[in-house]
Amino acid sequence: MVGATNQTLRPFLWRAGKLYPDREIVSRTAEGLERYTYAEYEGRVAQLAGALSDAGIGDGDRVATFCWNHNRHFETYFGVPSMGAQLHTINPLLPDHHIQYIVENAADRIVFVDPSLAPKLAGAVDEDAFDSVEQFVVMASAVPDDVGLSPVTDYESFIADAPDEYDWPDLSEDQPAGMCYTSGTTGQPKGVEYSQQMLWAHTMATLPESGLDIGAEDVIMPVVPMFHVNAWGLPFSTTAAGAKHVYPGPSPTPEDLAKLIEEEGVTMTAGVPTVWLGLLDYLDEHDADVSSLERIIIGGSAAPKSVIRRFDEEHDVDVLHAWGMTELSPVGTVAHLKPGMDDLPAEEQYEKRAKQGLLAPGLEMRVVDDDGNEVPWNGEEFGELWVRGPWVTTEYFERPDANEEDFEGNWLKTGDVVTVDEDGYVQIVDRAKDVIKSGGEWISSLELENSIMAHDDVAEATVIGVPHERWQERPVAFIVPKSGADRDALKAELVALVEDEFPKWWAPDEVVFIDEVPKTATGKFDKKVLRDQYDDSSLIEGKTPDTEAPSDE
Amino acid sequence: MVGATNQTLRPFLWRAGKLYPDREIVSRTAEGLERYTYAEYEGRVAQLAGALSDAGIGDGDRVATFCWNHNRHFETYFGVPSMGAQLHTINPLLPDHHIQYIVENAADRIVFVDPSLAPKLAGAVDEDAFDSVEQFVVMASAVPDDVGLSPVTDYESFIADAPDEYDWPDLSEDQPAGMCYTSGTTGQPKGVEYSQQMLWAHTMATLPESGLDIGAEDVIMPVVPMFHVNAWGLPFSTTAAGAKHVYPGPSPTPEDLAKLIEEEGVTMTAGVPTVWLGLLDYLDEHDADVSSLERIIIGGSAAPKSVIRRFDEEHDVDVLHAWGMTELSPVGTVAHLKPGMDDLPAEEQYEKRAKQGLLAPGLEMRVVDDDGNEVPWNGEEFGELWVRGPWVTTEYFERPDANEEDFEGNWLKTGDVVTVDEDGYVQIVDRAKDVIKSGGEWISSLELENSIMAHDDVAEATVIGVPHERWQERPVAFIVPKSGADRDALKAELVALVEDEFPKWWAPDEVVFIDEVPKTATGKFDKKVLRDQYDDSSLIEGKTPDTEAPSDE
């Protein structure tokens, strides 16, 4: 047998405690900033492990969190998996019935919960679904009055009697270490389990320049919530590098973020685009020294080129656009510039940076059409992105139905429709379920929406494919016009606008005016509702005309 | 089961070919520089795999190389392991009987050999030892006359008929991928096998800043031979990053290196200290533009502080001192400065940089005394360095005797005696077999030698521990004086010099004058010979005096 020691998370903790004992972990709380060192962190993680063990938690048991970004949540990141249990981070923004489903599905035994989120959790507690839950632990030094959870204790009491050293077990690489559920718009959430090895590999993959480029001198502030795929793995990678952590706590405002960057010397932060738009606007109006900030990782949804440009021009900050999925632990691509691209005109650099980027070393991808053939890398042809690699899951937890549909061998079918340009940059053009398949060609509903929403008289717009006898599907646009808009003129202008920008056969067969685009629980456009309503046809003013045929090329 | 796709080398090759198709691999040959791209490289690697398969090489078979640093050797790095075979890189500097032993032990089926090394190999071929070898492949486009190897073909003919695509197998992580033998001064060489997973983990560990800090824009020239633990993994990590490769070919002179740096824009290079001393001296005398060079990885033996200083002050090049072993694939520590150390006075920075450095993320270490207790990290107390982790082997190939001695559970006992300072920097003070154990304390033979060799009248010096009834061992120094030295005066001066620099009981009990220090095949001092001769006592002029007692503290 050829071999070495297992890939597990614990040596990252050990190294940070020994080599960077004085480096800090800073947390914003309701009471102000809390700070301690890796040396203290290491001791508290051991205490947590001891307390879990005393509470009967053992090999393979699931421990859930229902928390924002702070040091106690971070303590569960190493404490739970390193003692052999599995950390299940629950998204507190989910509707109650999803929370019930995933707690029951995961059979969580303990739930750690923030004081501010306790009411939400208490509202979701349902005796059947929470049957496996033996206790709640509130992330505070005392249990708030009328917390509505039982049995319940507070975190500091929970760990108080445990020693600050723990006899860590030697774990298998396959040991389940983490778990997240994807929150699809349809059906029940699907659980993704992370083994020790997957989290180890993801950590190592995000450290280098080809990943997120993290070194010991960095000060890293994850704004992306720690319940979103482990805050993109940053709590692990920051520790592995021996860098300083800054956790912004619940619901940080742009002012909170600007202050943390200035006061703690943040060099890198990460979150969804809206957060950074908010920060840009704040910085326009206020004096704040964010000169320590070198780069921002943007993911979750597409980063507008304007955000990338503004950070570069106004604040000398590089925006690194990244793409990932719960199934990828989550990072898959990062939009680094390639050698020589520094010399391109700024706008061309922003074009590249606004794409989802280059696949990380260690992963493989293919982009396939409906027949399973790979499409060429020319920046134009669409296909579904398939990915595989050491931090890409090969199955969902107890979901043979989804496994059948979403995997092909060890390839994950991501459900993202993308182009890849000649330089290898991936760009998402649509979700596979939303792309419109017309006459053998694919039409991006997303690109149509972006184009239509740029019209001054359009408040909201969404485009879906509707069944068509001859062409399989044809696009139909649903428009919420601004008040006072001339609907007939708008309709003609929108068709003209699309025909001008895209192949003529991309133009919607019908433009339907509605009062509001239906939304999902998380605020995204809910195309499923529209599709159902359209089948009902009550919403449609006209009927689908036999328009000019899509190209058969 | 929780899992993802296996960790194997092939996706690194795939990614470089697809994302960096035009990036170059440059080789210095007898005929000048050869260059091609990753796209071509990928095709040639597939050809090699096909040719190996046609030659009957399959799952788990060993394929050996006997080569310097060039593109064809690099082709074997991905071609051999990715088709399921195991790459065994043989050190051509070994004595014939060691070559015979390891070829027989590894049961190599094909040996790739450089034209310039063919005579050496032909001289070592022995029918019994080479019984497993079915053919030799000369790394050239034709077989030289009178090559003395049979059956033999040339590399270009070997791969010519194979297609430039290969149906790569899905390999297990445990699949043996590489093999190197350690060349100890005593006993037979010990084989270390690298699994696909170990090489994957080592590659990922060396990419980040905490490792060797390799990015796509780098141009990397491994001067360390590719038969020395895979040139410290650089061919793999350079490919994973999509960086440019520069291979300096056989026996490059300082002038060759300076030219390659200048002409190819080398940003990083790596090798043993003597190479860089040679380059420094060359640069003192010649005009060469080495401004592209950002850093040099020095390993293999201790880098003198003066080399680090000269590169910094004269050429603005960072020297990164690294420590590794065949058993570690090989990188274990790198002497990066920690956050804040940039502000230290230059001399203090050089002090840190001259140490072996900080353990890489993912590994664990302990430093233990004779009783197995960990010694404190105070920069003074000695202990043997033990290491474990995902790229540290847990056994030698078919050597239960050595496994018993050199491992404790999954810990590798490195045989290096080190101190660790308060900042966590490891410094090697001796080899475990050379350290002198006197009165319960350890004396570093290496530090005594360095001190003694600084005396103007000393040409060579080595210190060994000799058995002593009361103190277990006592130091005895063997000196080759420069001609004309006053031996009696020198003896007294050396004892005074040691007593001045170290605890008084470190002073050698006896100073013995000899004509030459015995050397091993690779030019290192052979203390074993001295120990045997000292037992014989014929060399010793006096007898061991009952000197002042070592401290019992």
Automatic annotation (TrEMBL), chains A, B:
AMP-binding enzyme C-terminal domain: residues covered: 447-524
GO biological process: fatty acid metabolic process
Protein origin, superkingdom: Archaea
Keyword Ligase: yes
GO molecular function terms noted in the UniProt entry: ligase activity
Domain AMP-dependent synthetase/ligase span(s) in chain numbering: 15-397
NCBIfam families cross-referenced by the UniProt entry: PRK06187.1
Family to which the UniProt record says this protein belongs: Belongs to the ATP-dependent AMP-binding enzyme family.
Name of this chain's protein: Long-chain fatty acid--CoA ligase
Organism name: Haloferax chudinovii
